[in-house]
Amino acid sequence: MAMDQINGKVCVTGASGYLASWLVKRLLLAGYHVTGTVRDPGNERKLAHLWRLEGAKERLQIVRANLMDEGSFDDAINGCQGVFHTASPVLKPSSNPKAEIIEPAVNGTLNVLRSCQKNPSLRRVVLTSSSSTVRIRYDFDSKIPLDESSWSSVDLCESLQLMIFALIYLFLRNYVLRKKIWYALSKILAEKAAWEFCGHNGIDLVTILPSFVIGPSLPPDLCSTASDVLGLLKGEKEKFQWHGRMGYVHIDDVALCHILVYEHQNSHGRYLCSSTVVDNNELVSLLSTRYPLLPIPERFELLDRPYYEFNTSKLTSLLGFKFKSIEEMFDDCIAWFDEQGYLC
Ligand SMILES: NC(=O)c1ccc[n+]([C@@H]2O[C@H](COP(=O)([O-])OP(=O)(O)OC[C@H]3O[C@@H](n4cnc5c(N)ncnc54)[C@H](OP(=O)(O)O)[C@@H]3O)[C@@H](O)[C@H]2O)c1
């Protein structure tokens, strides 16, 4: 991509979300004109943080679009050189997960891509996928870090789903686990559908696969991941128990990586975006040493899951990106929770 096409007009779907708000902030700081899509542009409370961002008054536009309404992204996307597709249902409680999680994620992604296809100005699409599309499998050598060539197993997710459904009658807490498996499945199926569609239609697609995102939250309400972290800092174990071993990444790094792969002429394919992988027990030991006054849980039950690390050299070695440390991401996140009065 030539430099004169950079700092043009881009679209961010789901712009008022946790990650997307930070991406909008970084895009505006970098000089882009940003069209953000939201489901309800009339909800002033949910959008006020976006209008407070530097450059927003001059270069931000907010447009209504819903993943489930065919063609509703056409206007927002038309005329944009870049599209950052972040909107997707994230770990919401649901009585009908297929309709409420899988369909908006998969059909919604195709809906957005069909709008991209109609846009003659389009240069590249950056899709926010997830590291859960890489790590949910048992058939790998745990001595070799997982990289972007790895795909989570749809069969494994579906069989876990059935097993968990049965377990729900025994242990209510497995609702948490069930929600997370539906979410992972939605991300796998949506990313696969995007690759297939873009392959057939000649769209330049790059995907970012963040691990668990940590950092200050710009929107007024805590999203699901931020409230899980707050729960951990207040002593709750339930939400993190399922993590077992998990990668973590600073929210600012995730936003910067989206822009890096959009701008970089040679970027292609998938990009695992993760700073550090740790077990729950390593995480709580690090956090309780650093924050002895917080009631962080002491220990988690060990899960029978394969050990893994992530190989992020596509971002670090090839594109020269440097991730913030796990200490820095939690320091920034905890300082923000404290400032907002969440830790009282
Ligand atoms: N947070 C993490 O740790 C993490 C890790 C890896 C990947 N990701 C990915 O990052 C993206 C953003 O997640 P997040 O953590 O920032 O969560 P979030 O704050 O809940 O953001 C999700 C966004 O998707 C939008 N959305 C959901 N259903 C929609 C629909 N039917 N039509 C239009 N928009 C819809 C939401 O809009 P409303 O505001 O209108 O509900 C919201 O803006 C997702 O693709 C997620 O899978 C997140």
Summarize the structure.
It contains 14 helices and 10 strands.
Task: Kindly list the characteristics that best describe this protein.
344 residues; alpha/beta; Rossmann fold; three-stranded mixed sheet; 14 helices; disordered N terminus; binds NADP nicotinamide-adenine-dinucleotide phosphate; NAD-dependent epimerase/dehydratase domain-containing protein; NAD(P)_dehydrat-like; NAD(P)-bd_dom_sf; NADP
The small-molecule ligands in this entry are: NADP nicotinamide-adenine-dinucleotide phosphate
Number of strands: 10
What is the rounded Rg?
19 Å
CATH superfamily: NAD(P)-binding Rossmann-like Domain
Shape verdict:
globular
- Estimate the helix proportion, in percent: 40-55%
Number of helices: 14
Query: How would you spell out the order of helices and strands?
Result: EHEHHEHEHEHHHEEHHEHEEHHH
Given helix and strand content, the structural type is alpha/beta
Describe the strand arrangement of the main beta sheet, using strand numbers: 3-2-1-4-5-6-9
CATH topology: Rossmann fold
Mean pLDDT: 91
CATH architect. name: 3-Layer(aba) Sandwich
* Largest β sheet strand count, sense and barrel closure: 7 strands, parallel
Strand coverage percent: 5-15%
The first-level CATH class name: Alpha Beta
Distance between the termini: 48 Å
Keywords: NADP, Oxidoreductase
Family: Belongs to the NAD(P)-dependent epimerase/dehydratase family. Dihydroflavonol-4-reductase subfamily.
Protein name: NAD-dependent epimerase/dehydratase domain-containing protein
Pfam family, one: Epimerase
